[in-house]
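Example complex used in Figure S2.
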Amino acid sequence: MLTRGIYTLPRAPRSQLRSVLCTSKRRLASCIQTPKVNQDRLWKDIHYTCQWGKGERWGKGENETGMSRLSLSDSDRMSRDWFVETTKSLNCNVQVDAMGNTFAVRKGRQQGPPTCAGSHLDTQPTGGRYDGILGVCAGVEMLRVLQEENIDHEYPTLSNINEEGARFPISMVSSGVWAGQIPLEKAHNLQEVGGGKQTMRQELQRIGYLGTLEANYEAMPIGAHFELHIEQGPRLEARNHKIGIVQGVQAYRWHTITVKGRDCHTGTTDFANRSDAMLTAAKMILHSHRLATKHACLASTGILTLSPGSTNTVPGTVRFSLDIRGGEDDRLMGLENQLKTDFHKIAHNEAVDDLNEGGTIGRGCTVEWVLDAPSKAIKFDKDCIQCVQDSAKELFGDEHESLTQTMISGAGHDSVFTSHRVPTSMIFVPCKDGVSHNPMEYCSPEDCANGAQVLMNAVLRYDKLRAERAG
Amino acid sequence: MLTRGIYTLPRAPRSQLRSVLCTSKRRLASCIQTPKVNQDRLWKDIHYTCQWGKGERWGKGENETGMSRLSLSDSDRMSRDWFVETTKSLNCNVQVDAMGNTFAVRKGRQQGPPTCAGSHLDTQPTGGRYDGILGVCAGVEMLRVLQEENIDHEYPTLSNINEEGARFPISMVSSGVWAGQIPLEKAHNLQEVGGGKQTMRQELQRIGYLGTLEANYEAMPIGAHFELHIEQGPRLEARNHKIGIVQGVQAYRWHTITVKGRDCHTGTTDFANRSDAMLTAAKMILHSHRLATKHACLASTGILTLSPGSTNTVPGTVRFSLDIRGGEDDRLMGLENQLKTDFHKIAHNEAVDDLNEGGTIGRGCTVEWVLDAPSKAIKFDKDCIQCVQDSAKELFGDEHESLTQTMISGAGHDSVFTSHRVPTSMIFVPCKDGVSHNPMEYCSPEDCANGAQVLMNAVLRYDKLRAERAG
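Predicted assembly (942 residues):
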């Protein structure tokens, strides 16, 4: 049980501090009294839950397999069952809404919407053991510590599961419905990608997670949302930082670009008589990269298909994805508008830098854009960010500046949707080589625990802040 | 029946000449006595045989469907049966070899290997009504005219069928075996592309075209090979030319290029930390086009696949076909060697023109080349070319210079293989918009007849030349 009071342990030198972080039984010097997460227990929870939906083996170690736990699959059901049973045993009241969002609430001293730590348990088809899973297990670890140490908090505290969205064709769809950003019916009727016939509603029902609670922020209000996640990129590791204090999520816009030329024989058609859709697409992809660099944005092509697809036929049609991202909406739209102008010019043999030079001018192509998914830039809540920052300071002491970095999330998360309705922010921890959505995804036990520690501290700080403000 | 003698019709003005070309009953001014092909009969043969293996409909007209008559299919068998029955009825001796090459020989006054007009009856899966079919039907028309007009030629004359090769994974495989360039066993064991289990030998046997004649230029020698074919490109049409006098076939080399980088998340990985295989491939494709222009060669990418293929994942692997072609072997190898040096540099962020400029230097990729199919440049036989040229002159009179063009074939044909063993050349006729390997492929009745006329005249000229040389 926690004895309240200011700890006055002398500041440990860095090497010692690390060992402190690795052992859960000792408490760190701190400006507020907080308990310590149990690193070993957290690590065990993460890998215990990974028995359901094991993916590709990539090493010989016990934990060296990836994950393939698609949303609403049988393995997903088993991991959800574990979450429900575990949180119930920790005296939580568990509720499931009509989108399968699962809320495990621990009572506080006061009435009011709970302060939440949440993420998702489902994975990519060839995913790893940390994306989402770490955030949920850290929430469970928070509940375990609160229970074990018998901590009183002001408002109810909540750990929950949202949805990753690799199986049905909208990402974070369950938090999106909760936030009123996606209609329930549309979400329920989503069919599996890859040819399956089941709808989301059918699968929710089949696995027993079509809850009776309305999937809505008004039916199930929360006070704030904190999400711990692996960074899924290389920036923390590159600078040997331990915690990313996430300020928001960059805007992105996903497009499908179709370039149409004309099929012709590669041997019999000279360059001047071609409408080469592949060559034109190659120029566009290179240009999108250069222009994104100029605008301090990102541009990526992850899908490209061409037709008819024969070595000796110049492709008449190329279709490619263009994912552009930027920290600010205006900057991103500036990039997009310039790309639209320039792609048209590239297709019509007009000058864009030197792209149409040095080769042979052909007959030109046409280009069409279809916007598949727009997402505006998100700025997280200042108070939430401050709580994360203070918690990192508490954990790292004087070294906090050299061990943390403020950053923008490059990827979307459930927190994007929650931020539409409640104060939200995120905590990032490093993942090895920045690798994610890959069986080899890895986050060290120490980094997992650091993240869980900052998560719990931030939830408790925000809880305290709410009480202070309520007077 | 042909009345021999020099025709002395006054030269027709061009517009009138055209109408002369369009009617088969009249004879054109000529320096040697040659009969006239029957345009209507040829046109009927072409479209009669297209009842077997009808493809996609692209227009409302009777003949406005494409062809899908894969080699050794049931529809291919029916068209082969037609060829055998028709040529037998024209007093030909028909022999089939172990690769299904079918030889219909009309006796000449002298013993000796026959002078041949040949092409193929099978088509691409989404092919048209003229590629190959025109050449075979023109050979049959030649036999019809010789029979009808009771023409005596010196050496036996032959019309034959080789093989296109869209179903089994080597093009022109049957003429390749005949020419001793492809081992019989290898050809017999070829399995269908696209997952079918049948071998070529099994299918030859099934449709009754596994002949007893040895598939070899020594077992079935021929004296020369002429092939009429649609151009499959736009050059004749662009200059309003009617006959292409083909000098040879350009060299080509087909490669598969594999670029390897690393999968990463499009949102969370900045440009500097990427190994973007798609961006790298785009630079290579653009560079191959520019460098081919400089070397007066061709370069084309008709297949590109990437992995893993998700909008928000930067592809770690891109594999693309690179088909390079040129009129001379040395020039083509010069291009290839420069591309190998430059692709390596592009992948490793070294300067190649400005390709790696204007963007962000990432972590680099690797690049691997695999040579799939090399084919050296072919120069056709001078005497055969001269016979084609003289025949065109005979057909067009004074206008022949403005109606013909000498050209190199961009595509491979059975004539590439026959040219290894016997004097060979080809005759091209225009096809609409240069379109081929497409249901909409079109060659006008007049152009078909012009080509068939030049083919027959060239065969008879070469027959005469052989006799003169034999003394």
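Confidence is low (pLDDT under 50) at residues 1-32 of chain A. The two ends of chain A are 27 Å apart (CA to CA).
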